[in-house]
Amino acid sequence: MDFREHAINRDWSAEGKIDLLRQMIRIRRFEQAALKYYNAGMMGGFLILDIGQESVSTGVRSVMGPLDHSISGPRGMGHALAAGMEFGPCMAELFGKANGCSKGKGGMFSYYDPGRNHWGCHGLAAAQTPLAAGLAFALKQREIPGAVVCFLGDGAVNQGVYHESLNLDGLFGLPVVYLIENNGYSMGTSVARSSRFKECLARRAEGYDIDWDRCGDGDLYELRARVWTALERARHERRPTVLEIETYRYYGFTVADANAKRYRTPEEIEERKKRDPLAGWRKYLHEEGILDAAAAEEIDLAAKAEAEAAVKFAEAGAPPGIGDIMDDVYWETDHDTPASRIGRHYFGE
Ligand SMILES: Cc1ncc(C[n+]2csc(CCOP(=O)(O)OP(=O)(O)O)c2C)c(N)n1
Ligand SMILES: [Mg+2]
User: Fold this and answer.
1) Among candidates 111, 102, 125, which has minimal Cα distance to 47?
2) Alpha-carbon span 84 to 71, nearest angstrom
3) Which of the listed residues 49, 124, 152 should we mutate to test ligand 1's pocket, taking the one with most ligand atoms within 8 A of CB?
4) Ligand 1 closest atom vs CA 74
5) CA 53: distance to chain centroid?
């Protein structure tokens, strides 16, 4: 099938195609700036980069509508930025500053923006999968239009809670798309070493009577068409889908991954970089006469400037005050409830 002729792509405007490239470049430039300042010792904790995987976050977002929701796992900066979160507060969060999107108390795992229907990064592998089922259940139960996209990695599919979620999704018919970003590795463990079904992770959905599909991250028309089909199934038929997208990360599991060079060869990374989806899309737009080299360069310069401005914003911020340390952690504390006063947050008063 020629995916350019698919309903979602047929009338896709030149501006829309250019914007997809812009979003990919923006995310890459943001993360490269974060890497630079992480290496310079300006931030603590983890830094988990999407570099190499940007066509997934941006391609998926390009077919999501204002009523759709997203939620992601540890590798979620790209999803949050694609959802529209602003560079300045996101960078400041990495720097641990009070002008960060979570007031500098959470770092990259707390990119969360309910106003944009983005329900955050979640550090525990697969922790987002039952939350996505809960979001989808709420949509269905309250008859709210829209669908939920839940991003997860190839490592998360082996967590029990993901399977519990799939069972409920299938049983209740929930409007959710589990989008597996299969980048071949879970920390330093390859899919071949961790999965019985090495060739296809999405196929496990059959065990729950759930539709599944898969594609690569290089053909943006195909990716959009497959995501759209899954979203429409969720929106209108209120049925789940598991969609696997093969992709690749160029950096280690985190930036501080001491084993980064042990489980894959530099040649493997270089080989894959030759098929970089961002570079491929830029080349395609050029060849089609949609965007010339000078205009592409302008987009790149603007993204670099935006990332540097975000760093300035972050540097100018103050660290959270010691007096605020308990704020915005527990609802009970913020509202000074009796449960908070006796320190029993979970089990009533
Ligand atoms: C329950 C749990 N076990 C272990 C970890 C440590 N951990 C963080 S991410 C990760 C692997 C994630 O691999 P994958 O799902 O493929 O995502 P990717 O990093 O490739 O994006 C592990 C084991 C964790 N966060 N949570
Ligand atoms: Mg992985």
Assistant:
1) 111
2) 13
3) 124
4) 9
5) 9
This prediction has a pTM of 0.95
188 lines ligand 1 (CB under 6 A): no
Q: Which atom of ligand 1 lies at the shortest distance from residue 181's CA?
A: 21
| DSSP-assigned letters across all residues of 310-342 | HHHHHHHSPPPPGGGTTTTT-HHHHTT-HHHHT
User: Can you name the residues that pair with 69 across neighbouring β-strands?
Assistant: 148
Distance of alpha carbon 188 from alpha carbon 329, whole angstroms: 33
Q: What DSSP element (H or E) covers 148?
A: strand 148-153
Whole-number pLDDT of residue 349: 47
**Architecture of the structural domain at 3-186+201-321:** 3-Layer(aba) Sandwich (3.40)
Distance 324 CA to ligand 2 centre (A): 36
Q: Along the chain (349 residues), what's the average pLDDT of each consecutive run of 10 residues?
A: 95 98 98 97 92 98 98 97 98 97 91 95 96 98 98 97 98 98 95 86 96 98 98 98 97 84 90 97 98 97 98 97 88 86 67
CA 94 to chain CA mean position, Å: 16
Question: What confidence score (pLDDT) does residue 243 get?
Answer: 98
288 CA distance to ligand 1 middle (Å):
39
Nearest ligand by distance to the CA of 126: 1
Closest to 45 (Cα-Cα) out of 96, 91, 10, 89: 96
Tokens standing for 161?
């809670």
Residue of the CA atom closest to atom 20 of ligand 1 = 186
